[in-house]
Amino acid sequence: MNCSVWTAHQHCPLCKRQLTEEKASLNTYPNYHSDAKRRNLKQRVFLFIAILIMSTSLLINLLTTPNQLWTFYIVGPVLYALLSINHTILSKAHIGSKIIFQVLALSAMLVVINVTAGGERWSVHYVIPFLVIVATLMVTIIILRKPMKWKEYLGYMMTMIILGFMPVLLFVSTLSYVLWPGAITALYALLTFTGMILFANKTMKNEIVRRFHF
Amino acid sequence: MDQWYKIDNAGKIFHAVSNPANSSVFRIAMMMKSPVEADKLQSALDDVMKRLPMFAVKLGKGIFWDFLVENDKKLFVQKEHRFPCAPIDPIETNGFLFRVIYYEKRIAVEFFHSVTDGTGALEFLKALVYHYLLEQQAQIENDGSILDIEDQPSTYELDDSYFNYKSNHAVKNAREGHAFQIKGTPTEETTVVHGVMKSNDIRTAARAYGVSITAYITSVLIVAIYYEKLLYRSRKEEIKIAIPVNLRKMFPSKSLRNFFAVVNVGIHVEEHTTLEDIMADISKQLQTKAEKEALQLGLNHHVKLQTMLAARFVPNFFKYYALRYGYKSYGERTKTMTLTNLGDVHLPEEMMPHIAHMEMVMYPTKKSPINGGICSINDQFVLSFARTIEEAAIIRSFFQELTKTAGIDIEVYANDGG
């Protein structure tokens, strides 16, 4: 009553003073518990392990063979594993976004390893175009197997088609000098897009209208 | 499964600015006289969902604007396990942008603000509780105050009334001065404190000053903020309270989607300013700012921003970034607190004995960490404060001021009272 209001709680909700010795029987709200906190803890544990491995390997590398930075062979895969655990495994993200994330993360990791090793640019010549084709094929298969869910995947499919032209851009920008894998990826993206247009029914057109409304 | 809706004018902003610290999720609840039966509530929900397709939606991702699309999954009632107005996780709700919660005697709906406003949510809750009571074999005659689920959904209920009522007149200048902002120790979970009093006591108190209930409560709130935060500060900034106004009262609309405006009323309180001075000023501001002509200008302004040709073809990502910036700079910084008044709720007479009182919980935000909601029914006036800071001094001072100046009896309960 110090706050000049009445309450049935054991402690005043306004000033926190204890008002009675007895535990109040008022049951207006539950006790809260959060799953997000537990998930968050897992993610922080993995992050700490990743930092531990990367910093230790960097230190050993600098102390033993400072002229040869082999630590990137460890940093790349560890970062990839960390992101894969936190996004692909632990997060509730859409499977389409997980596929696209994997394409980008795997590509980045392989480029890092390739640059560290030096020599032939096998990552941009062959691996990235191949990864894009496999990912586009995966999204296509999911849509064909679950036609009821195609609307959910339309945005991811469009993203994959756009990514399909990336290897050709790498060639144009002279980062890559082997044309045929990039050309095949672009053709595959173009064919997927053509297939989508040709086999589109009214509902797909409707879906495109709503996605592009302005 | 092909029905889809553009998100309405106000809904676009809530969608762009929502994040874990600003859920854009508000709650309206009815406290029943007996514990809630979950199976009967589920049956009532299944029935009501068929009648209100505009709520049975999930979010669709577009290039220039996101949209709402029909959701054919089932929405399950949930036993309350999270704090009020927690962000809606579509995975947990089967894609739906609202949840139906029960706990002991409470039936609550929590809506993401992009779907509807307080009026739309109230219509939903009224229909839900009506059908819940019918499931319990209560004898209730629908006097027309509840949506009839036998009726076909009306296209008027789907109307984006902002567009419908925009006019070619001038638009309101959006520039407004910054207001005093409450700061405190942030908490992860939202704490709510409800103050229950007799509607008649509040009405009598407001009448004694010749002002409306909203003007009265707003003024007492300003006094409480002043005493707790500005009395011993050299820089006395303006205290502004943002009050949502139901536009359906001025512009005839049956829409169950968002159709409201926000008016900011405020005052520079000095040491010599009396409660009477504040009430006179706030009451006058409320009258002029909530006039139809003033609201029309604001409505035109918001529709114009959305329909600007330059903005239309900007991809979502950039547009939402700009909306977030505008919201922080011109929306959040121009108010100290939001106080929303759902008013006195009318239900069929036979429903009243089953309902103890109602709660309206307005989600707090980072810049506005304490917000208030008002709802009254059955002569029970409930003022609920939701906060994401530890300090409750303003709320305590507000209730003390009410009891001191008007002698009103208040009972409080909270989700952290122990």
TrEMBL record, chain B:
Pfam name, any one: AATase
Transmembrane helix in keyword set: yes
Bilayer-crossing regions: 208-227
One GO MF term attached to the UniProt entry: transferase activity
Alphabetical keyword list: Membrane, Transferase, Transmembrane, Transmembrane helix
Protein name listed in UniProt: Alcohol acetyltransferase
Gene3D superfamilies noted in UniProt: Chloramphenicol acetyltransferase-like domain, Nonribosomal peptide synthetase, condensation domain
Keyword Nucleus belongs to the record: no
